[in-house]
């Protein structure tokens, strides 16, 4: 057991040994730091919101993947009644309006498949149309196309499918890493609320102890004043200390209630039990290598995926602007069988071949430089994005480096804080005894009291800094340095 652990355990025994008996007497829930973190990442409202945010990203990715699977579509017009007057040209060349009444029923079934490498669409369809005339000879005719295969292909244009296949998987992977990062941020918030309550507990204990001590010392000062061994101003100073300590005790009690409420609200606890905390006495003893931290930060942090995605998106925007500045062409071709018949009994006999090929071309002749302007703007925006990405990368590495350096000096900071707390407590006890026998002044006693209180709070602050630094590095790297393993989650269970 190292020195800092022995000092921490000693402080824990001296100052927090009575917490469990208090919890039992007052029906309080006793929680350690690890328990608070575990509750925060599994049950807190923020953790629930993080899960739902991830689920939204998951289903968005599933929808993207489904777009590249074969789709089956049924189109049907079961009832289309038309009664109108239409213009027709008769034999003498004049126009005449005639009444037209008809009933149309149609349906088609189509299977389509996106072709990502080319940006085209392959489809297979079957259709049937029935037309019944309700005027004249009232004939009924059928148009059947039992099979038709077709392909639609944009030529010399921007292929959105190809860019989607690069970007969407990155966005989903980024969502996974963001979920893990959010859990680490929730852990840091839990640590902050934990030590807010821990400090409130300490302040309550300090203020209560100081109140009782000042009450006793004030009574001693009254006796010494009556004997003529101290002056009136010293007695008044002691009375002022007593009143100040009473005020501080009342404020500390209120602050403790507020801190308990804040932690319970953050954890989503709705029961009537109060909370008391066990201050961590054991601190993990290890150093973090900067190069190792940077390696995992580059490999694991969602920011790296975000920067990679931003590079691809910048190139995509340039490709899209470039394609829009050129001519656009579209190919649409179909091959199949069809038949026109006045009855269904022979509609499938002697089917005839049908072919259709069309090419549409759109060429910008004069756009006054609009297309070129969009293209040049996209290129400039890409260069600007690349510069920002490089700067963000440098800033990120610097943040990781500084955080690791700050963490690696925490051992010494904790040791200093622990020793200072122990020394200040011993010095105050000695000074208080010397004051009782009249060997030190009230001023010396107040200085010792302030140093004791400050040192005790500084130790709690040092503990807070240690755990905040550690979980901040975990957030940067998504790596558990204590267990020497990557931070992961069962994403399959999250979407069940």
UniProtKB/TrEMBL annotation:
Gene3D superfamilies for this protein: Outer membrane efflux proteins (OEP) (1.20.1600.10)
Matches recorded under SUPFAM superfamilies: Outer membrane efflux proteins (OEP)
Pfam family, one: OEP
Keyword Ribosomal protein: no
Locations listed in the record: Cell outer membrane
Species for this entry: Salinivirga cyanobacteriivorans
Protein name: Type I secretion outer membrane protein, TolC family
Similarity-based family: Belongs to the outer membrane factor (OMF) (TC 1.B.17) family.
A molecular-function term among this protein's GO annotations: porin activity
Taxonomy, superkingdom: Bacteria
Record keywords: Cell outer membrane, Membrane, Transmembrane, Transmembrane beta strand, Transport
Keyword Transport belongs to the record: yes
Cellular component, GO annotation: cell outer membrane; efflux pump complex
InterPro entries hit by this protein: OMP_efflux, TolC-like
